[in-house]
Every structure is written in structure tokens, then in C-alpha cells.
Specification:
It comes from Pseudoalteromonas obscura. By secondary structure, this protein is α+β, with helices and mostly antiparallel strands. The chain has 13 helices and six strands. The structure holds guanosine-5'-triphosphate. Residues 181, 214-219, 222, 227, 230-231, 234, 256-257, 323, 327 line the site of guanosine-5'-triphosphate.
Length: 345
């Protein structure tokens, strides 16, 4: 996956929504409604320290939520927010008494949803320790045990639920990034990776090369052998290309019988050899019994001032030229001289 997906947001709950930052602002509204009156109440009854702590927690949470909503880095570390929340509910429990013990549960659930597993175990253990200590000091051992296991059961149930959500989320992301027929990455992914490759060129001067591949006379294959056989050819073609390229190279399906291979950190000269290898290999592969299938390929490497659209259009022009010049060949778009050249076999 491109770095874009993970870089900005470390909060678990937010990653389910692709970092759109809408979950925490909603939570902050709920926290305002619940915690603001509690802060005011404590200040009125003279519990200034607790009142102030709750007010600080609300402000910190609002600041982070606002940053998430605007797509900025968190001004206050999320671990500090969690420690503030734990301190607030624990101190409230010790100050206002057993009636406030119920707040431990929603705070624990929010922590589980927000933090990676190990961090949430640490924070929840802290919460459990302080609350059980309160019950033990004010009630008896049996009540302490009852509370301890009720909390543990809640935490385990939430954890199991989160594992399911995580698995489904991963599956959904994978499915939505791939073409259903061939399993190649889809066009949306191509746009993300192209912009990463262009950024790489701008910041680190690393070249990448785009190879556009189109099956020759594919309509004939469909017409003669049927659509199902045509599909089979596309599936075989993808596994054939995959077998020829490196792990770090990326294969996308961008149209019916049109594919793109992105070779990150690869200069044009190397890409020319890869393209010729792909062409020769596909020609000799048994993609469809008794029939030789060929492809035409268009190449374009990153250049200065290149945009995503221009990059794709130059590779497309090279592919079009390869078709025009007789198919089963590789052409490249020379950005320096703005012209299309044949790539020697
Ligand atoms: N089997 C199958 N066929 C598809 C799929 N997507 C598009 N096609 C077919 O691919 C064919 C593409 O035909 P054209 O664009 O005319 O290109 P071509 O016949 O390959 O000719 P050249 O590209 O000029 O060599 C069309 O007949 C489409 O119906 C698909 O998912 N499966």
C-alpha cells in the first residue's frame, strides 16, 4: 500500500475510515456533553483539582479532534489523552464514590477501539488496577473479584469484536484495490502509486518507468473462442507478467485488455529490457491453446516537470505507435526529444 494510507493517523479507530477524521470529532461532542457538566460540578463543590483535570482533558481531546478533522498532525500525543482520561475517571471514582464506577466501562471500550493492542492492554490494566483497588478498599474481596472479572469479560469481548473488524477491514481494503477478474491492482491504486513515484522523482531524483501493455487483436480472440476463453487469457496473462517482474514492481489492469506495469526506481534502459522480455515471453506462453497471443507495449520514464496525466498519456502514445507500427513490439516515448522511438528486440 502507498505510504499515504498509514502516515497521518496512528489512531486505530480512524484508520477504519481512511483517516477522514470524522469519528473523533463525533466522540468529542459526546465527551463534551458528559464531561463538561462533571467538570463544572466539581468546580462548584470545591473539588478544584478534579474539575481542572477534567477541563484539561476536554480541551486536549477537542484540540486533537479538530486536528484530525483538518487532516493535521495531533497537537497532543494520543497517549497523554488516554492517561488524562484514565486519571479523570479514577479520581472521579475516589472523589465522588461508587456511583461513578460505571464510567470506567465506556472509557475502557474507547481505549480498546483507539489504540493498538499492546497499548490498549497497558491502559486498560491501569484502569482495572485503580478501579479494583477502590472497590477493594471500600467493599470486600468478593465485590473486588466480581468487578475485576466483569471488567475483564468486557475487555475480552471488545477485543474479539475488534479482531473481527480488523480482519474485515483488511479484506475490504484488499478487495477494493484489486480488479475482480485478474487480481491485478485497479486504476484507483495506479493513481496513488503514480503520484508516489512522481514524488520520489522530485524529492530523491529516483526514476521510475511505466509500461503500458495491450493485447493484440483481443476482439478476435473473444469472437472466435468466446468471452470465457477471453477472460482466461487475461487471467493467464496477469500470472505470466507477474512471474516475469520483481516483487517491488506493480501490475495494474486499467482497461479491458490493457495493463500497466510500474517499475519503481527503474531507469528507462532497464525498463526497455523488461518490456522486451515481457513481450517475448507472452508470445511463447500458452495463454490460449493452439494460438499465439502477442502484446504491444508503450514505455515512458519519469522526467522533470512530468505530471501524472502527461506520464500516462506519453506511455499511451508510445503504445499507440507500437500498434500502428505492426503490433508485437515495444515503443518508448522520449520525453527529452518529445518523440516516439522503437525499442530494439
Ligand atoms: N473476455 C473479455 N474481453 C474483454 C474484457 N474487457 C474488454 N474486453 C474485450 O476486449 C476487446 C478489445 O478490443 P479492441 O479495443 O478493438 O482491441 P483489439 O481487438 O485488441 O485490437 P488492437 O488492440 O488494436 O490490437 C473488446 O472486444 C472487448 O469486448 C474482459 O474483461 N474479458
Amino acid at each position: 500500500m502507498p505510504a499515504k494510507y498509514n502516515a497521518k493517523y496512528s489512531l486505530r479507530l480512524n484508520t477504519y475510515f481512511d483517516g477522514q477524521g470524522k469519528v473523533f470529532p463525533a466522540l468529542s461532542l459526546i465527551i463534551m456533553v458528559i464531561f463538561a457538566p462533571l467538570a463544572v460540578k466539581n468546580l462548584i463543590i470545591g473539588e478544584y483539582a478534579l474539575g481542572l483535570l477534567i477541563a484539561i482533558f476536554i480541551c486536549a481531546f477537542l484540540a486533537d479532534s479538530n486536528a484530525l478533522l483538518k487532516g493535521r498532525a495531533l497537537p497532543i500525543n494520543e497517549n497523554i489523552i488516554a492517561i488524562l482520561a484514565i486519571s479523570c475517571v479514577s479520581l472521579t471514582l475516589f472523589t465522588l464514590g461508587a456511583g461513578t464506577i460505571f464510567w470506567i466501562f465506556p472509557v475502557s471500550i474507547i481505549i480498546s477501539f483507539s489504540f493498538p493492542l499492546i497499548t490498549s492492554i497497558i491502559f486498560n490494566s491501569l484502569l482495572l488496577l485503580t478501579a479494583t483497588t477502590y472497590v477493594f478498599l471500600n467493599y470486600d474481596v468478593a465485590d473486588s473479584l466480581r468487578f475485576f472479572f466483569a471488567f475483564l469479560l468486557t475487555a475480552c469481548a471488545v477485543h474479539l469484536l475488534l479482531r473481527q473488524i480488523d480482519a474485515l477491514h483488511t479484506l475490504l481494503k484488499e478487495e477494493s484495490s484489486k480488479d475482480a477478474l485478474t487480481g491485478a491492482l485497479n486504476r484507483r491504486q495506479l493513481n496513488l502509486f503514480l503520484s508516489d513515484a512522481l514524488a520520489n522523482k522530485i524529492h530523491y531524483h529516483n526514476d521510475s518507468t511505466l509500461i503500458m501493455i495491450d493485447v493484440d487483436h483481443f476482439k478476435q480472440i473473444n469472437d472466435i473462442y468466446g468471452h470465457a476463453k477471453g477472460d482466461e487469457v487475461l487471467i493467464n496473462l496477469v500470472s505470466d507478467i507477474r512471474a516475469q517482474i520483481r516483487e517491488s514492481d506493480l501490475l495494474f489492469r486499467v482497461g479491458g485488455e490493457e495493463f500497466v506495469v510500474l517499475l519503481p526506481n527503474t531507469q528507462l534502459k532497464t525498463a526497455e529490457k523488461v518490456a522486451q522480455k515481457l513481450r517475448a515471453n507472452i508470445k511463447t506462453s500458452a495463454l490460449l491453446d493452439n494460438r499465439t497471443i502477442t502484446v504491444s507495449l508503450g514505455l515512458c520514464a519519469t522526467g522533470n516537470g512530468l505530471t501524472q496525466t502527461k506520464w500516462m498519456s506519453c506511455a499511451d502514445k508510445a503504445l499507440y505507435a507500437a500498434k500502428q507500427r505492426g503490433r508485437d513490439r515495444v515503443c518508448l516515448y522520449n520525453l527529452n526529444q518529445n518523440r516516439i522511438e522503437d525499442v530494439a528486440a
